[in-house]
């Protein structure tokens, strides 16, 4: 799972990933190319950007809802996998092609994308904060304090 720095980096760099062509170009080292469901074209059509790491070469991330999926199988259908994991993704529910959006509609999309990013960062920070509390409680217990 991506940390806060990675989420931030992705949020800013993915502002150009409304373009299906650019998303498709990100799948340079993608293992599934022919005679399967998750080709770079279909992955890009479903909103995904390839964001491999050393340990996870097949991680794909939605440029809009920032959901990360890995462990792809040739038969996986990218659009249905995306719907299964995050049916409310603003990209999936977009009624038009990106090139047909008005400036106002694009502004609303970007506002929604920003909200998703903030929600994810807040969840991460809350999780870190909970871990800190747990560590502090452990430390106090080891010093003999009781709850
Ligand atoms: Zn999404």
From TrEMBL:
UniProt keyword list: Cell cycle, Cell division, Centromere, Chromosome, Chromosome partition, Cytoplasm, Cytoskeleton, Metal-binding, Mitosis, Nucleus, Phosphoprotein, Ubl conjugation, Zinc
Keyword Cytoplasm belongs to the record: yes
Gene Ontology terms, MF aspect: metal ion binding
GO BP annotation list: cell division; chromosome segregation
Location(s), subcellular: Chromosome, Centromere; Cytoplasm, Cytoskeleton, Spindle; Nucleus
Family matches, as SUPFAM superfamilies: Inhibitor of apoptosis (IAP) repeat
GO cellular component: chromosome, centromeric region; nucleus; spindle
Keyword Transit peptide in annotation: no
Pfam family name, one: BIR
InterPro entries per the UniProt record, alphabetical: Baculoviral_IAP, BIR_rpt
Stated family: Belongs to the IAP family.
Matches recorded under PANTHER family: BACULOVIRAL IAP REPEAT-CONTAINING PROTEIN 5.1, DETERIN
Protein's name according to its UniProt entry: Uncharacterized protein
